[in-house]
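FAQ

Q: What does a record look like?
A: Structure on top, sequence underneath. For example:
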């Protein structure tokens, strides 16, 4: 199971997706210096007393972020059933693309209504890294499947 490269790709993709739970995607700063944070669960704004209050909830994004590492770990354990593993990996690729697009939609809709300067965090690139890792895993699963089929033809 662990000796196959697609397992490593899926594991690192799951770890990169789990990093989204830990911090801020983006930080917006308005003219007065007040910060607005975009986290995995929503948009938060600093109040005057130093507290952070929720402005908008990201329920679809939160569900997708929670589902991606779970599906990646499930795909790792289907190493004997490559067809199912590749379907799960295609689902992961689709969910990563949806996550990236939803994040862009939320950011564009939020910044179009307000005049903010954007200060990106390093976590903003994690969905892109996960997407690349899942694409590599998909390619490796296909190669593995072709190798097994070629051995079957020789028998």
């Amino acid at each position: 199971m662990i000796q196959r490269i697609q397992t490593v790709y899926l594991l690192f993709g799951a770890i990169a997706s789990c990093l989204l739970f830990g911090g801020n995607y983006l930080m917006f700063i308005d003219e007065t210096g007040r910060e607005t944070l975009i986290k995995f669960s929503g948009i938060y704004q600093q109040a005057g007393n130093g507290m952070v209050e929720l402005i908008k909830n990201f329920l679809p994004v939160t569900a997708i972020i929670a589902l991606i590492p779970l599906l990646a770990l499930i795909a790792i354990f289907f190493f004997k059933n490559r067809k199912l593993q590749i379907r799960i990996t295609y689902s992961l690729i689709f969910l990563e693309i949806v996550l990236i697009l939803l994040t862009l939609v939320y950011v564009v809709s939020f910044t179009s209504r307000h005049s903010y300067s954007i200060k990106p965090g390093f976590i903003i690139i994690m969905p892109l890294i996960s997407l690349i890792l899942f694409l590599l895993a998909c390619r490796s699963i296909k190669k593995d499947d072709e190798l097994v089929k070629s051995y079957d033809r020789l028998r």
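Q: Is there anything notable about this one?
A: The beta strands are 24-29, 35-39, 42-46, 52-57, 117-120.
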